[in-house]
Amino acid sequence: MNSIVILNTLVIIGILISAFLTVKFDNLLSSIIALSITGSFVALEFMLLHAPDVAIAEAAVGAVLSPVIFIITLKKVKEGKEE
Amino acid sequence: MSNNRKVKDVIVKTAADLFTPIALVLGFYIILHGHLSPGGGFQGGVLVASAVILIYLGYGYSEVSKRFNMEFIKKNEALGAILFTVFGLAGILYGSVFFTNVFVGIGNVGDLISSGTIMFMNDSVGYKVLTGVGFLILLMIGLLAPDNEN
Amino acid sequence: MKRFAIAFSLVVFLLMGSYAMYYSSTLDRTYSGTKLSEVLKPEQNYDLEKPDGVANIMIRENLKRTRAVNAVTAVVFDYRGYDTLGESFILLTAIAGSVVILKSNKKGSDTNVK
């Protein structure tokens, strides 16, 4: 068994677990953090598949930008609910 | 409790001070070397724009709104789009079709200034994405500002 | 005067665009000045039976034609320039739409307070 194959399998298992947790969590903030972890694992998998262009884009957009926008939206929605 | 809050503030501010130059330098490197190394305009632009988030986390909205001029950034995004179209139109001025690579003979393979209009198009798209995504983040952050209310 | 200038520039753009469309439809299909049939001439180099004949050109003759080391950027900005143009204008439109929504929301809350 090749070491690359083992690393690929571990990363894919990480993608599956974090994607499952994204759907499973009741707290929305925890769900967003799990989505960010999913983005990081997907970027690592792209790196293992020799696609560094897509890996950089995925790491910037999927792991940083979209969770920040989701968190800002979540905070804004909660503010409106309290008033 | 207030003491604990202060320690957290110092930690976040130090991390922002440390990581903002790294994000800026890596983003500009990826934009400028888009035709030589992995990456391109879009990836580098998003990386540079994420530095705005780091500055906001470290120093709050008052500092961010003092440093960045939103009208100027919005106009510069349109400037980036116009530059990209002008480099596409250079093919027509050269006497060929739209999006022809014009100055392809300049420079050797692997130089920074080589590969004709690919490099200039890459830079203009990077500038456009940098200003556009940065403006989007500034707009979203402005919704959370406490002094906007009342 | 302003409306006349807008109408005049639109008419000029329409005429020039229609002439450019007509003129480019009469040209041969070329890439960087050489005809596409000339590019595909040494047939032993390319597997023309498979549908990826143009992909072979992009990969094997990339350095000679564009001098860009990163082949992905060469494809995105040179061979598929129209795609990138549309993509970047999609981003411009999305940001303009979010500006309209968020700015109007803020102004409405201000008038409500007053």
From TrEMBL, chain A:
It is a multi-pass membrane protein. This is Uncharacterized MnhB-related membrane protein. Gene3D superfamilies: NADH-ubiquinone/plastoquinone oxidoreductase chain 6, subunit NuoJ (1.20.120.1200). GO terms for cellular component: plasma membrane. It comes from the Bacteria. The chain crosses the membrane at residues 6-23, 28-48, 54-74. The keyword Transmembrane helix applies. It is found in: Cell membrane. Residues 14-78 form the MrpA C-terminal/MbhD domain. Its main location: membrane.
From TrEMBL, chain B:
The keyword Zinc does not apply. Its main location: membrane. One of its GO terms (cellular component) is plasma membrane. The chain crosses the membrane at residues 12-32, 44-61, 82-106, 126-145. Residues 11-133 form the Na+/H+ antiporter MnhB subunit-related protein domain. Pfam families: MnhB. Keywords: Cell membrane, Membrane, Transmembrane, Transmembrane helix. It is a multi-pass membrane protein. NCBIfam families: PRK08386.1. Belongs to the CPA3 antiporters (TC 2.A.63) subunit B family. This is Multicomponent Na+:H+ antiporter subunit B. It comes from Caloramator fervidus.
UniProtKB/TrEMBL annotation, chain C:
It comes from the Bacteria. This is Multicomponent Na+:H+ antiporter subunit B. It comes from Caloramator fervidus.
